[in-house]
């Protein structure tokens, strides 16, 4: 019966029946709206009109401090607040002034109470806006952005009714342009925006969000600096929508500012149970970058609360990858640093009646609607004794947990704060046999370190309410959690569990196999850290989850390596060529520019002798039309030598396979210019070259609809081709692991750590140009 009464009440406010029923599903919202509507009816003494009902619904759904409900309802019911603009201003005012009492005079000034905007004023403001843009309006007609006119009129008349402004714009534009023609009804073609000159090498060029290309002209630092993001200023946490205040909030923020000096503080909090991947690169850039862009500091904090899965090698690898990307943490900390404080706060939470020891098993807590705990209301002293018994090892794993008394945004009830685990911890050994969960640990560690902006991916949005609740339940400083979208790649698997399956199946060698998208794998393949950071800048600081094509990352790699990888020559499928009229008695020393486009970057020297090796594909006895390389009657130039060779004899083995060529040479300036210049090596080094392609054949290997047999059934059998022996010129003889080169006409290559003295191994990082088949 009560539900029917509420349904009738809500539809009486102007809500559709569907919207009213949806509202009833939200207990907190429906209770607040019911109270607001009841009070408004009592004030008005009559039914509520739709305009007032809309404002009341907006108030109930957006107000975070219930203490202000009655105060604001009285202003709406008495028509002192009668527009959406005024309501937004009122909500912002009470959010930024959480302490009593409210100064009504200042409040009314800030909210435009009593300000009357006449139709004549709206007409004049719209007319002035139209006159400013008249020439462009007459050219573009109805393709002009009318929102610009409404925005300018509203800026001139802050408290004007938005609907009245829109109506006036429509009327005046119709009077100026007349009715729409067929041309006006055609869709306006999209025109790419002109890009301003970029001076920052990290400046983004193309951003692709969910596969759609858009223009992005800001560097990562510019995207993260100051007002570029709508984040709160340090100490102004309470101005953030959804932030929950208490009577202690302002004092805690004052203490926070005294400790931090108003400095921005962020943290990157990985779990040390696996290797970082490309998605983490965005998190690293966002957390460290936001602090750097705003003269702040960033902690590297290991969330080491699950000793079963943590290994020392993961701590080391994570530190290495953060440094590799170019960031230096202000301090490296561990959640385990704070175990004593976290335990003391858990006891305090029990004393305050906000936590209890529960004996429900893990399987009983799974699912969407688990049964409420029968131990939820057990006496405080009993929970304290049991919690101490948990710490002393008197319960087996799974027999007891400490749970917090709250309902999370996703409907999960009473999340676990502590559980029993008898696995020794890598830092604390056997000191503890109970460990805190993420839901309990994360916000409290942020509070201890006085983090100003707790930046995390979108899936943690459902935990925001528990984040605020726990800090406030203990009356400790409460940071603000901000969410951003995850970064994913097509043709990739980044799950720790699935990478382990790939290793176990022999599909990849280890976490750093160059076909994976872990950061250690990308480094081994030869991806420069600058390219990964540039890629994150191109993706941008998006709220929506983005799934990118790998070739966009590869484009960033080419941009960096084109300027940083010196040139060398290598031959993958060698064919011996003997120059019968070599112009010297011994080998010549050839000076080759490290960067042909900029010879100021130096040269390296390679030998040029009477025997050279070329790519087998650079010769054909019977060439097809359009073939431009070496053939009968078709000479080619040898790059950097100044010589042209012409075929004289083809030497074949018993099987008929071409074994070598005999050619003559002449100076390039003596005669007709050849159609092509090819690369070559002379007196080369033998090496191993690994050519990598995509590990998976489908874009989404984890999608059952796309790959019914599972991701292990989608492996690309041609993802690795080992070329051995390949030949490379001797300029790379002293190369070290991770040194990078452009092998002319072949691609960019990096020295693999498997290399030994005299036995170099190269990984192909990317080809010189994007493969048009990769979409």
List descriptors.
single chain, 775 residues, alpha/beta, Helicase, Ruva Protein, domain 3, Arc Repressor Mutant, subunit A, Glutamyl-tRNA Synthetase, domain 2, globular, phosphoprotein, Glutamine--tRNA ligase, nucleotide-binding, EC 6.1.1.18, ATP binding
Question: Overview of this structure, please?
Answer:
There is one protein chain. The chain has 775 residues and is an alpha/beta fold. Among the domains are: 6-111, Orthogonal Bundle (Helicase, Ruva Protein, domain 3); 119-178, Arc Repressor Mutant, subunit A (Orthogonal Bundle), CATH 1.10.10.2420; 485-569 and 689-774, Glutamyl-tRNA Synthetase, domain 2, CATH 1.10.1160.10; 570-679, Ribosomal Protein L25, Chain P, CATH 2.40.240. It contains 24 helices and 28 strands. The strands form eight sheets. It has a seven-stranded mixed beta sheet, with helices on one face. A six-stranded mixed beta sheet has the order 19-16-22-21-20-23, with no helix packed on it. Strands 6-7-8-9 form a four-stranded antiparallel beta sheet. Helix 10 (146-156) packs across helix 11 and helix 19 (438-448) packs across helix 20. The longest helix is centred in the first third of the chain and has 18 residues, at 27-44. The radius of gyration is 34 Å and the shape is globular. It starts with a helix and ends in a 9-residue tail after the last strand.
